[in-house]
Amino acid sequence: MVIPKIKLAMPEKIYRFGSSDEESAKERYMKHTTLSATLLAILIMAASGAVRADAAAGGKLFQAKKCQECHYTSGPAKEKTIADQLAKKGPELWYAGSKFQKEWLGKWLQDPKPIRSLKYNSLTEKNAGNHPKLAAPDAVAMTDFLMSLTSKEVKEGVIKPNASPKGRLIFTKNMPCSGCHQFPGKGFLGGTNGPSLVNAGERLNPDWVFAYLKDGSKTFKPVRQMPVFAGLMNEQDMQAVAEFIATFKK
Amino acid sequence: MHRFVNHAVLLFAAGMLLGPSARAADGEQLFKFYCAQCHGLQGKGDGPNITEGFPVEPRNFTKTDEMNKLSDADIRNVIQDGGPSASKSPMMPPWGKSLAKDDVDALVKHLRVLCKCKGKQ
Predict the structure, then answer these.
(1) What would the mean pLDDT of A119-125 be, rounded to a whole number?
(2) Domain A165-245 has CATH 1.10.760.10
(3) Which of A101, A138, A234, B74 is the least buried, fewest Cβ under 10 Å from its Cβ?
(4) Do residue A225 and residue B91 have CB atoms under 8 angstroms apart?
(5) Is 0.90 surpassed by the pTM of this model?
């Protein structure tokens, strides 16, 4: 985190306004309010500048660590054929800021445990669990960079965790979600081909899960193994599933 | 010489017209991408998703007798509309919104290669 140097001392001229005997209480109040608002604005601008600075540092780090050899970060999606998808060595990250939860991402980059038990794009090779690790300061910068990559297709603040019987029924019985995705529970815990959803409530932005279901294969993954459910499930059912997935914790 | 050029132009034009069919859907590639996670790369019903407790046994496409009981239309319907459309498990997803008609046809052809059978006519 780059800490911006902010000069908090008030300029003499402005400071003197408040101490003038000739001013009415109302004027003094107005000037104090303006001064406070100006200071607040400066602080906010400085803080957002700091985030931008970290995102930029993270972007440079992304290149320096050669992350782009496996992940691309500029949208829109580039894959058009199965061969295009199979040529990728890792998931696309151009909407990472919409997909992931920041806290989870920051921790994962420092201790990257496999999310899928099989190697990316493979049905036979195990995930070697050898994703590069980052030291804590680098992970902060990288997280800021990745969280700056967002998609306008994701409407924020709609999906809240909710283990409704409807969401559970759709996820575990009526639809084939558990065929490929592991989930927390008892008995059958899901197939292993898809990314595990065991801690999806901490890992994924539930609003992204909803958008991913609604969008079909238009925006995020034009060539994907997951079936398109848009047009087969209504939005209320998709919302129930996204809300149910948002409750998944280890 | 002129005749040669004319022929070349004609051949090129014919090639352009035939382009789409020359890029016909690759049934084996489609199968390995969309189906093999449950049905296995060889179609034996043993893909990596099939772990302990999986609620259903995915169809083994190499069983000629079983596959001969199904018509091409039966297979096409299950691919497009999912298991429940044929009173089978919802673990078989509906692929109708994911795959083009040509893709589904190519998959049916590939299953006929795997089962070495023509199916119910």
Answers:
(1) 97
(2) yes
(3) A234
(4) no
(5) no
